[in-house]
Amino acid sequence: MSVLRTMIVRLDLAGRGHFVCRCMRRNDIRNIAIIAHVDHGKTTLVDALLKQSRIFRDNQHVAERVMDSNDLERERGITILSKNTAVMYKGTKINIVDTPGHADFGGEVERVMNMVEGVLLLVDAVDGPMPQTRFVLRKALQAGHRAIVVVNKIDRPNARPNHVMNETFDLFVDLGASDEQAEFATIFASAISGVSGRSPLKIHDSLEPLFDAIIAQIPGPEVELNGPPQFLVTSTIYDDYKGKILIGRLRRGSLRKAQPIIRIAHDGTMTPGKVTQVFTFNGLDRNEVEVVDAGDIVALAGVSDAGIGDTIADAEFPEQLPPIAVEEPTVRMTFAVNNSPLGGREGTHVTSRKLRERLYQETEHDVALRVTDTDAADAFAVSGRGELHLTILIETMRREGFEFQVSRPEVIYKEEDGQKVEPIEQVEIEVSEQYQGTVIELMGQRKGIMRDMRYRDDGSVHIVFHVPTRGLLGFRQTFLTATRGEGLMNSLFMGYEPLHGEINTRANGSLIASESGVASGFGLYGAQERGQLFISAGQEVYEGMIVGQHIRDRDLEVNVCKRKHLTNMRSSGADDALRLETPRNLSLDDAIEYISDDELVEITPKSYRLRKKILAQDERKRDQKRREMSMQGA
Ligand SMILES: Nc1nc2c(ncn2[C@@H]2O[C@H](COP(=O)(O)OP(=O)(O)OP(=O)(O)O)[C@@H](O)[C@H]2O)c(=O)[nH]1
Ligand SMILES: [Mg+2]
User: Fold this and answer.
1) Residue in 44, 82, 130, 158 to alter for ligand 1 test, most ligand atoms within 8 A of Cβ
2) Three-class DSSP category at 441
3) CA–CA distances in Å: residue 288 to residues 31, 281, 331, 409, 549
4) For residue 575, what pLDDT is reported?
């Protein structure tokens, strides 16, 4: 029987069919996303939900934070990509999407909102709502979702669950939650110990109270099971055997293995295709099934040309779903072919064609990333939601064997009503009172405006600033040094404001190799008095490479390859006594934070090197003079 016969079709004036939904609510499924500020315990909660729904065999060893499955997630202890899993509870299937909490990956949270009917909003029982709590809750409320608030980490010594619950309620009201949304259920939990309860005074030794709340509070999906199939591609993953896999919630109808479909791209272009296999989620696995039905979160194989935001629709009745919209990127870097004298030796993918292909490929599954060509054939502008967003991409590509060089991150200005505007962030800082003055001064230099300051009982102070994103680039290291690693800083993109004036934050110039060769102990010894070195003896350097940070605010050329004259007998043997300080080992994040506008970071699978854009000393000097002249003239 054709699906079309069971359908009611109304023709509008343009003669195009409109499908009239005969919807029903499915009670056997719940689709939820877990959202929160970074580190509030989302992925740990997923572990506990998986364990308690007996997804694993009794003797099976399961890694901690099992959903953080890629190398960078494990190394950094953060979630970068949102991921799907599903568990069964008392006969109901619960599809769960774990999302990242770091502000730079907010785009991941935005896009999964259309895959679910409700969210678990986790809030740390000590910290309370933080900047990203606000961002993710706003996205969930805008999508019309109901939330269950999970006050997590109630086991922490200074937990103040009731206070945190009240603060969270205020946040709902502040964000304009509807009456229904504001009547949320609250569960108090410790994800790490797998316990929960409806009151902090009555905690059960399982997550059953949370599971029950999910079933009772989050509505099942409302769907038309018999309509023509309609599916919005919400994320894509790559499978070595099956190629690109599309993930999303099936909105309408059902899809079978080997079913012909129409793919509708953003611009409405329709391409016929075929779904070769269909899958549902079950614990950490994807199970291949014969047919998937509307309301379930499913995976489809076979339509490898589809991208995020495309609709997979019925072959005879193709109807497009609204594509996914996420907020604009705020930070941009240039990725270019590595043209340094040491370039091309350590990477397997070094050409501009490869680089371009890889960057554009990334935009297919990262909706918050933008890539554009530039005037130069070997350089591409890559825009993202923050320094970390772009750094993770750089690190991923490096590990894949790519070699390239990147410029200093810069903010993306916009034009509003004929005026140039820049991105502004709300920054919340927590430090002990002794650093309060230092922090206020640092923020002042960056054109930050203080909005709020509160003293906490434990001797710390919580300060809120509005700061141009421009002032925050490269700020992390300075902040950590200034607060001796104790300070906590979180930021949230707020919007655009007219330019806040010049910000000059780089206090030090670079030590630059004046000659190419191999760094010698003797040469480095001479240089280390001028600042802090980044390299050690035996390392190959080239003219224009940055070998350290100058103590002063301008650049200085040093000859780190210099050898002692062997004829100078008086000092022979004294070389052993030359004590070299341990060089500062820059991580990729540090290197990107360090460089200024006229510098680059060279990235290869084996190393990072810092360099001036213009390598030859005399050429660099001429360029500097030209710039100074034009500044004076201006
Ligand atoms: N004390 C305590 N620690 C917890 C609890 N839940 C999680 N943690 C710890 O909090 C840290 C962060 O946990 P994650 O589960 O990675 O947090 P997340 O929200 O997934 O973090 P992102 O995905 O990076 O935003 C880890 O060190 C956990 O062990 C809890 O209930 N109590
Ligand atoms: Mg996580």
Assistant:
1) 44
2) helix
3) 19, 9, 40, 43, 56
4) 52
Q: How far apart are CA 530 and CA 557, in angstroms?
A: 10
The domain segmentation of the chain, as residue ranges, is 29-219, 223-314, 414-498, 510-585
- Residue of the CA atom closest to atom 2 of ligand 1: 153
At residue 396, the 3 state secondary structure works out as: helix
416 Cα: distance to centroid of ligand 2 (angstroms): 36
Q: Is the whole-model pTM more than 0.85? A: yes
Q: Would you state the pLDDT for residue 268?
A: 92
Ligand 1: residues whose CB is within 6 Å? 36, 38-44, 65, 78-79, 100-102, 152-153, 155-156, 190-192
Residue bearing tokens 């100074």: 628
The CATH superfamily label for domain 223-314 reads: Translation factors (2.40.30.10)
**If you average pLDDT over residues 41-55, what whole number do you get?**
92
Centre of ligand 2 from the C-alpha of residue 126, in Å: 18
Question: Rounded mean pLDDT of 238-250?
Answer: 91
Which residues does 61 contact at the CB level (< 8 Å), separation at least 6? none
pLDDT for the residue numbered 458? 78
Q: Which burial class, exposed, middle or buried, applies to 71 when counting CB atoms under 10 A from its CB (0-12, 13-18, 19+)?
A: exposed
For 632, counting Cβ atoms within 10 Å of its Cβ (0-12 exposed, 13-18 middle, 19+ buried), the class is exposed
> Distance from the CA of 298 to the center of ligand 2, in angstroms?
22
Q: What is the DSSP string of 59-125?
A: T----TTTT--SHHHHHHTS--S-EEEEEEETTEEEEEEE---SGGGHHHHHHHGGG-SEEEEEEET
* Partners of residue 533 on adjacent β-strands: 548
245 close to 123: Cβ distance less than 8 angstroms: no
CA angle, residues 64, 67, 68, in degrees to nearest 5: 80
Determine whether domain 29-219 maps to CATH 3.20.20.380.
Answer: no
Mean pLDDT of 196-221: 96
- Please state the separation of Cα 452 from the chain's center in Å: 27
Q: Within 10 Å of residue 170's Cβ, how many Cβ atoms?
A: 10
Q: Which CATH number describes the domain made up of 414-498?
A: 3.30.70.240
Q: Give the Cα separation of 97 and 112 in Å (integer).
A: 8
Q: Which CATH superfamily is domain 510-585 in?
A: bipa protein (2.40.50.250)
Assign residue 508 a region (left: φ > 0; alpha: ψ between -120 and 50; beta: otherwise): beta
CA 546 to chain centre: 29
Point out the ligand nearest to the CA of residue 39: 1
Beta strands at 531-533 and 370-373: parallel, antiparallel or unpaired? unpaired
Q: Are 146 and 218 in contact (CB under 8 A)?
A: yes
Please, are residues 433 and 463 in contact by the beta-carbon 8 Å criterion?
Answer: no
Beta-bridge partner residues of 292: 255
What is the spatial distance between Cα 390 and Cα 395, in angstroms, rounded to a whole number? 9
The bridge status of strand 379-384 relative to strand 370-373 is: antiparallel
Q: For the residues 230-235, what does the mean pLDDT come to?
A: 95
Does this chain's domain 223-314 share its CATH topology with 414-498? no
